[in-house]
Amino acid sequence: MKFDLKQCFSRRRGRLSGSSLGMGVFLAFVFAAFFTAALFARVTEPENPFDGETGVDAEPTLLLCDVDRNENVYIPAPVAADLSDDEKTEETDDALTPEEEEPEEEPEDEPEPPAEEPEPPASPPEPEQRQKQRPQTSSQRQNQALPGRSGAQNENAPTSDSGGIGGGESENGKKTDEIYFTTTIKDGETVTEPVYSFEIRHLKEELSVKAVTVSVNGEIVGQFNGSVMLKEGANVIRVKVDYVDGGGKTVASPFKDYTVNLDTQSLVIQTSLKDETVTRDQYPFTASASYRGEDVPLAVIFNGETVSGTGGNYRVRLKEGTNLFVLSAEGGGLKRENQYTIVYQSDGIFDFETDLADGLVVTEPTVSFSVWMVNGVDAVLSVKHGREKLSGDGAGRFTVENLRNGENKISISAFDSGQNDQYVSRTYTVTFRRPEASEDNPFPDPDHSPTLQTIPNIESGYVTKNATFSLVVKGSDYRGNWLTANNMRLWLNDTEIRPRFQNTDGTEFQLLLNAADNTIKIFLKDEEGYTALYTYQLTYERSDGPIGQAVVSVEATTLGLGYIIPPTSCDIYSSQPASYVLKELLEKNGAQMIFGKDEGSLDSGFYLSRIIKDGITEGYQIPENLIGYLEEAGAAANDMRDPDSLGEKDFYSGSGWMVAVNGLYPNHSLDEVHLRDGDRLTIRYTLCLGMDVGGNVNSSQGNFPELFIEE
């Protein structure tokens, strides 16, 4: 006769198994005494009753938490003879869920005759059989679900609506109480759709995810993308994550098992309700019903009264004590009814709840939300948008219809003078962002879209032979206000181009063209958040010879000298800057120029300091009205002058040469100007920082009212 130590000492089962034979009782006890004495004779002072060896190859025992008794117990190594045919299993390192069902009580004095020791099966059991198995080895027992650890989930362990918690397992296999991830899987829930989606949330920011392995019923899901396919009935979903440190070393591989049931044939009621005790009178829950995957009507009775919800979401105010929920549904000729009891025991904490999310971002200037009082039915509620007080609809619903573009502050306060003057207040941030223009929707709000002008006008397509193409962009909001470079972005063939300069005439971009066909996109956004996206096509025709002619002149009207070089047509080339054109023109007219500043050249950092020509300033005469203007502007006159040259600081300290292209004054040097066919380039002499020739764009003094502008 073979005696089972596991059955003898197992406090979890709380009984001895045996037959009903009377004589067997006496013989069993005699044999047990003899066998136990022989067994313990082999043990030398074990640390606990089950640390010694048994008559079989026993593994070290593991301290588990018995959640039924809420106490610590020692579980000895199992004896194979105790297993029935259905419980035979092969030793494996997989984490198996122990059998949790309590067997029926039997007389303790009738031990069960032992069975012969069976052979283990040749292969591990299928996943759906694991609920019936028992741990066989220490490695298996170590993989059991301990509170706060990894492994198969304990059936009696409480589940959370927020999903399961992943434990930790270090690289050397030791357990850890670290929590590495959570999921949105609701363990034990029943669903009606075979496609089941969930999220994995990683909690250790200092670790990186090396691999995520998801399996369903023992089969690994290839290329997991957030969803798995369930089969009818119970499904075991295992989530395993391998984490590495900054050096790429694997430091933990926690996993978690969940059970999700798929029922597509029955009448199913799905709800977040469960029997529980709560301390807050506000109670939100979800409830729905389906038959063979199709929604069917559901009646929700709360304390004898029917309540309604929206989209399967419900909220009620609990009464003190016991509250009864009854959910009933009909479909396919079937009826089903579930009941739940929620006990409300107030903790006395005065508060409020709201469905307004802090940090909410909306694309419409309106937001609606509800506020519910917690443990304070008679409280006074105050809701404000900025300094504006909001009035609700009487049922706790509030609406803000005039959100400002950007961040908005909404404060909610509650005061209850009947409960020791309790007060609570919180502020929520809601950001209003208007829909931004895109290629699919270039003008989200046509009535308020910013407008755009370009120089040259490229609206209907444009053909140029300039490899370097200068484009001036001028945008305005729907009120007509000028938009600066900060309000616009430009892309050439999907590459963003930074602006070169801006003034009241617009913002200039320099485009380097390589392809024959070019796409230009210009995005505008005004101060109120209205946007627009303009798209243009630009064609570049490559040429090695002259690409056209520009009209170039040099004048000093401010000295009464008129043109020094009259308007002259000059050949221009695709990649040649205007500094070369000016040099050639001056040389053809017997003049030279002094240029360059800090090692400047015709190609970089060009600065026209002085033009040298015989008799260039002979007969000068500053107009009387300009002299009066210069005096009012505080311009400082001097005696610096030369009859054969004209340049900076002659006559006045603010004098010098300025460049205008088609009447506009760029704020960059001439080596960055690339003329187009038909452009007009004027080199003009100013006595007062450009104010006398219309080139002043920043000074509060303004330009000379009678400008000397070339006709």
List keywords for this structure.
711 residues; mainly beta; 5-stranded mixed beta sheet; 5 helices; 6-stranded mixed beta sheet; 6 domains; disordered N terminus; Immunoglobulin-like; 47 strands; elongated
Describe this structure in words.
It is a single chain. With 711 residues, the chain is mainly beta. It has six domains: 5-142, no CATH class; 165-262, Sandwich (Immunoglobulin-like), CATH 2.60.40; 267-344, Immunoglobulins (Immunoglobulin-like); 351-432, Sandwich (Immunoglobulin-like), CATH 2.60.40.10; 446-540, Immunoglobulins (Immunoglobulin-like), CATH 2.60.40.10; 548-686, Ferric Hydroxamate Uptake Protein, Chain A, domain 1 (Beta Complex). The strands form twelve sheets. Strands 5, 8, 9, 11, 12 and 13 form a six-stranded mixed sheet that branches. Strands 15-22-21-18-19 form a five-stranded mixed sheet, with no helix packed on it. The protein starts with a helix and ends in a 25-residue tail after the last strand.
